[in-house]
UniProtKB/TrEMBL annotation, chains A, B, C, D:
Entry's Gene Ontology cellular component terms: cytosol
Protein name: NTP pyrophosphatase, house-cleaning of non-canonical NTPs
SUPFAM superfamilies per the UniProt record, alphabetical: all-alpha NTP pyrophosphatases
Any single biological process term in GO: dCTP catabolic process
One Pfam family it belongs to: MazG-like
Family matches, as InterPro entries: dCTP_Pyrophosphatase (IPR052555), DCTPP (IPR025984)
UniProt GO MF annotations: dCTP diphosphatase activity
Amino acid sequence: MTLDDLALRLRDFAAARNWEPFHTPKNLVMALSGEVGELTELFQWLTPEESAAVLDDPGTAHDVRDELADVLLYLVRLADVLGVDLLAAAEAKIDRNEHRFPPESVG
Amino acid sequence: MTLDDLALRLRDFAAARNWEPFHTPKNLVMALSGEVGELTELFQWLTPEESAAVLDDPGTAHDVRDELADVLLYLVRLADVLGVDLLAAAEAKIDRNEHRFPPESVG
Amino acid sequence: MTLDDLALRLRDFAAARNWEPFHTPKNLVMALSGEVGELTELFQWLTPEESAAVLDDPGTAHDVRDELADVLLYLVRLADVLGVDLLAAAEAKIDRNEHRFPPESVG
Amino acid sequence: MTLDDLALRLRDFAAARNWEPFHTPKNLVMALSGEVGELTELFQWLTPEESAAVLDDPGTAHDVRDELADVLLYLVRLADVLGVDLLAAAEAKIDRNEHRFPPESVG
């Protein structure tokens, strides 16, 4: 499965439920933000070390995977509704970041 | 470019800058949340209709693509550090959603 | 009850439960962010008009009040842990905003 | 200055700039969320210990106070537009929390 496949599947999912009128970019930004809030709640009381071991507990691992999935689903749906190519935008951004933050000189 | 390629590129990017100690899951969740905050600011005063036409203005379109890219970059980096397969998690979630929200019966 | 009273009550609340080690500013920022995420979820699918009438339904009204309260509680706790006078900071900011955004001149 | 004074001042501020049409609860929730995102960015790469000392640097201290102020301003404006008494809601919530999380029994 690719991001494009995922976008198509979400498009069909929304159409089959008549959810398209709710999927304005503004609403989807809020939904994305709400899911990131749920992800944040899983990490808020953890030390940095505990956060690195968060998948060791099966129950928490399930919740973390679930929230990461929700974030991706709304991000892909939002980009699709807007007509933005997410991977192209990400590649362009990382190219710019290569210039903004040159690697540390060695030796 | 695939999500896997992107994850590898971000891994190299962090290594070349000695940023790995900063990239704890906890910190990356916060970075993801901060980027979603910047995306939110682009949409906060727009009507639903204006939000649907947000790419019509070239300057705003650039900013929206840029913030969507940042959200994807931190999401992919976070999943990579955790060892989570984002697309598999998303596919599993949408499978569950198919059952949680059956399509509207027609006629 | 004032904001100062609230800060003291939250201080006692945390002390009585031995939660102080968890209440680092970093963790409290995440907790605040998580609560704003829950508030966002209450509004994400609403039209602007529906959002203005959100207190008309008693169940939703309870949830909105509850999330607004949680946001205030974490904001006050965070400011108290940092030693920031929230009302003084807000007053200073609104003074600056008066200059940044002069009122519209009238015909 | 009290929270009520602040709410009145923000009400006048919005009226003088004809910003009231923008101040729907939905938009204000997004604005609040955006400001919490800016606050999050100030803390995202800090260790817990660094986050506790964040006011030691005068520049960062100014930024932290500024973002805390922005969060309070939008929270107060949102509650005022909705007609919610923030302090009463907070007091009711902390009363409920006293029962949900009884203090640790002591030796």
